[in-house]
Design brief:
heterodimer; A: alpha+beta; 6-stranded antiparallel beta sheet; 3-stranded antiparallel beta sheet; 20% helix; B: alpha+beta; 6-stranded mixed beta sheet; 6-stranded antiparallel β-barrel; globular
Chain lengths: 129, 408
């Protein structure tokens, strides 16, 4: 699976794609879903709640483990992906598409500069193996 | 993504297992940490490898430590592997489990003394499951005894209990039943499980000595495939029909390839755990241990208390007086957070027990679990809740097993 060029990436394997205005769609990367294994439950943030950049925003539970998901950017949660509550396997099957986790209204667009481009993220993966 | 781990059986899936925490180049990624463990100087107890280790790594198995061995957790994915076993067939490397032979005029009597079931009097070619108990009725290990010949038996122990069981056998051999020879053959033999609805037909095609009739369930037979000696036992830990094959470690890779070529799906310990939980097969170390007696665990049918065996009186007492907690199976009322080992079970706000095993069941598409609760909470249909990392998850007590295969 290729790393979407339009997304920005955190070191902790979350991605954000800025859609209209300052709304960002957030999920976990293909590397993350591959290493987590089969996802069985996602604990999404409350709509309307605030997240800090790199603060815990969600939990993804796989067959064998639970992982904290950190928001790559700060802001207000405006929407969560209800489909993955019924079909958590979408996170594995389509981590950049149907397996998205939540949408956030970015409090500070400058925070995107502290994230990696697709190329930088791929280089980062090359280093950690 | 922060990797907070769940303790599972004997594995603690966290980077603290690798003692060179700070110098490990990839501390975040637990798969890589465990691959690095082989080279880690800081590691005190090197993990053993089964005869199929090279097969697993070359076939992209994700290797994890388990019971002192490096084992594949999964290949293509735990849920896909589970589904393959329920619908077709899967192969598991179970060479990490202890294989101990007991041979001689006292073999049957020795095993009858330490094992709760009627194993001494098994017919040749038959097997029985049961428990090894302490003097107070706690469970040292569970295991199947196979009678291979008039004076020769084999006991299979859990990987993490092999040494304890071996020492236990040797102790009674020395003090009570000297005319028996105990031999740990774990390292010279490999063991492969082939499980699923296609398993027996596949065996019939591959193994001439299983004709005209396959062995019966809980039967075992020694013979050869292509000149290589093999013991076939119609036993397993998945709730499906199938076999466990014991052969010399030099022949393991060859057999593994043949089964793969015949369409068996590679399966790891992750799928094994899901399958056994769906079939409500207990796991020693999780659902039972030396603090649990067979009555609490609901395993009375494997205890022959008219036979004198070590711990019999304690088990009888528990049967007569009753016990303060009993094993139940439960399932959640929908998808959601998964009840796991050690989570508190509640009746309203009252703590009534603890989960011992839990997980998502792909076969039932819900979360299931086992746990011990106060006896008044054990009636199927009872609504309870589980505290899953601070959130209250509603569950319902169900009759066991969760899943039963269709039988002809």
């Amino acid at each position: 699976m290729s790393t979407p060029k339009q997304a920005k990436y955190s070191r902790e394997h979350e991605w954000v794609i800025v859609e209209s205005e300052n709304i960002g769609r957030v999920g976990i990367t293909d590397y993350a879903q591959e290493h987590l294994g089969d996802v069985v439950f996602v604990d999404l943030p409350e709509q309307g709640s605030e997240v800090a950049q790199f603060g815990k925003a969600a939990e993804v539970e796989s067959v064998k483990a639970v992982s904290d998901i950190y928001a790559p950017v700060a802001g207000e949660i405006v929407e969560t992906n209800q489909r993955i509550l019924e079909n958590p396997e979408l996170v594995n099957e389509d981590p950049y598409g149907k397996g998205w986790l939540f949408r956030v209204r970015l409090a500070n667009l400058n925070e995107l500069d502290s994230l990696m481009s697709a190329e930088e993220y791929e280089a980062h993966l090359g280093q950690i193996g | 993504m922060g990797f907070s781990a769940i303790a599972w059986e004997n594995i603690v899936l966290t980077k603290t297992l690798c003692r060179s925490n700070n110098s490990c180049p990839k501390p975040f990624d637990f798969w890589v940490v465990f691959n690095d463990l082989i080279d880690c100087d800081a590691m005190e107890h090197p993990l053993q490898q089964t005869p199929l280790y090279n097969q697993h790594t070359s076939l992209q198995g994700k290797m994890v430590p388990f019971g002192g061995w490096l084992m594949p957790l999964q290949f293509q994915g735990i849920l896909a592997e589970t589904r393959a076993v329920r619908t077709r067939s899967g192969i598991f490397d179970v060479s990490h489990m202890g294989r101990i032979t007991v041979d001689g005029p006292h073999a049957g009597a020795l095993l009858d003394w330490i094992h709760s079931n009627d194993v001494g009097g098994l017919a040749v070619g038959r097997a029985k499951y049961g428990l090894l108990c302490t003097a107070t009725g706690g469970i040292i290990d569970d295991g199947i005894v196979y009678r291979l010949s008039e004076e020769k038996y084999m006991l299979i122990a859990n990987a993490s209990n092999t040494k304890v069981v071996l020492d236990w056998l040797l102790h009674w051999n020395q003090t009570k039943y000297p005319k028996a020879h105990i031999l740990d053959i774990t390292r010279e033999k490999a063991m492969v499980a082939l499980q699923g609805p296609e398993a027996i037909p596949m065996m019939q095609e591959l193994i001439a000595f299983l004709h005209p009739e396959p062995i019966r369930p809980f039967g075992c037979k020694e013979g050869e495939i292509n000149g290589r000696p093999v013991l076939v036992a119609r036993t397993g830990y998945t709730g499906e029909d199938g076999v466990e094959l014991i052969l010399s470690e030099g022949d393991a890779a060859w057999l593994w390839e043949i089964l793969r070529e015949n369409g068996a799906t590679l399966c790891g310990l992750g799928a094994r755990d899901v399958l056994r939980l769906e079939a409500a097969l207990l796991l020693h170390g999780a659902d039972m241990n030396t603090d649990v007696n067979p009555v609490e665990a609901g395993l009375e049918r494997f205890v022959k208390s008219d036979k004198d065996f070590h711990g019999r009186d304690a088990v009888r007492n528990a049967e007569e007086r009753g016990v303060g907690r009993k094993l139940i199976g439960f399932q959640t009322l929908g998808r959601g957070a998964v009840p796991r080992s050690h989570h508190s079970i509640k009746d309203g706000s009252r703590h009534v027990g603890e989960v011992t095993s839990g997980g998502y069941s792909p076969t039932l598409d819900t979360n299931i679990g086992l746990g011990y609760v106060a006896p008044e909470c054990t009636v199927p249909g009872t609504r309870l809740s589980v505290d899953v990392r601070g959130r209250s998850v509603a569950v319902e007590v169900v009759t066991l097993p969760f899943y039963s295969r269709k039988r002809n």
